[in-house]
TrEMBL record:
Membrane topology value: Multi-pass membrane protein
Main location: membrane
Domain (ABC transmembrane type-1): residue spans on this chain: 18-202
Family: Belongs to the binding-protein-dependent transport system permease family.
Entry annotated with the keyword Membrane: yes
PROSITE patterns in the cross-refs: ABC_TM1
Organism: Rhodovibrio sodomensis
Compartments, record wording: Cell membrane
TM segment ranges: 22-41, 53-75, 81-100, 132-159, 179-198
Tree of life domain: Bacteria
InterPro entries tied to this protein: ABC_transp_perm/SBD, MetI-like, MetI-like_sf
Sorted UniProt keywords: Membrane, Transmembrane, Transmembrane helix, Transport
Name of the molecule in the record: Quaternary ammonium transporter
Length: 213
């Protein structure tokens, strides 16, 4: 099913597409978190915003990916910006929901103790709330990361897509090797990234692992 001679001749191209895939997924996740974090803090500060915010990001999440990219093309063209805007949008629902629920899950008694110690609102957020909410937040980041890695392949239809371009090449020429290579590398990337994020979470929250034992 795989023509290894073709793989050998195109290793440089495959490597470049693999790097592009990582860049697109990574940037979308970073941009998504940069937008979702302040939105989540706003929803916590003004709880009435949470429902509409979750509903709006949920509607965006349900828009078919190809349709969303097509809607963006008149404004940003067949560019990397189109890919990143679309991919970032799909991370928002997952990230906002997990950040808010993680911070909401912090015990009021812990917050009262932090206030009694004289910590400011900002100090409480970064020294108390975020560390305790980190497992839930990291769970959202993991889901968003794996989802985004899969969605990157769709952007190949607008000239981007990283490993997704191998799918287009294979389907266009009715040649299975590029499709299989693209699929295997995409799945492997998602698995490796998820495992790395699990390790990162364990390193950042050792007390959480101890509590679970």
């Amino acid at each position: 099913m795989i023509r290894w001679s073709w793989v050998g001749r195109h290793l440089d191209d495959i490597g470049w597409l693999f790097v592009e895939h990582i860049q697109l997924a990574g940037l979308a996740l970073v941009f998504g978190f940069a937008i979702a974090f302040p939105l989540s803090l706003m929803a916590l500060r003004w709880p009435r915003l949470y429902g509409p915010l979750l509903g709006f990001t949920g509607v965006l999440f349900t828009v078919p990916s190809l349709a969303l990219f097509i809607l963006l093309i008149p404004y940003t063209g067949l560019s990397k910006a189109t890919s990143l805007i679309g991919l970032t949008i799909y991370t928002l629902l997952i990230l906002v929901r997990n950040i808010v629920e993680g911070l909401r899950g912090v015990s009021p008694h812990v917050l009262d103790a932090a206030k009694a110690m004289g910590l400011t609102r900002t100090q409480r957020l970064f020294q108390v709330e975020l560390p305790l909410a980190l497992p839930m937040i990291m769970a959202g980041i993991r889901i968003a990361a794996v989802t985004t890695i899969g969605l990157v392949t769709v952007t190949a239809l607008i000239g981007q897509g990283g490993l997704g371009r191998l799918f287009i090449d294979g389907f266009t020429r009715d040649f299975a090797t590029p499709v299989i290579v693209g699929f295997v590398l995409s799945v492997a990337l998602a698995v490796v990234v998820d495992l790395l994020l699990v390790r990162l979470q364990s390193a950042l929250t050792p007390w959480h692992d101890e509590a679970g034992r």
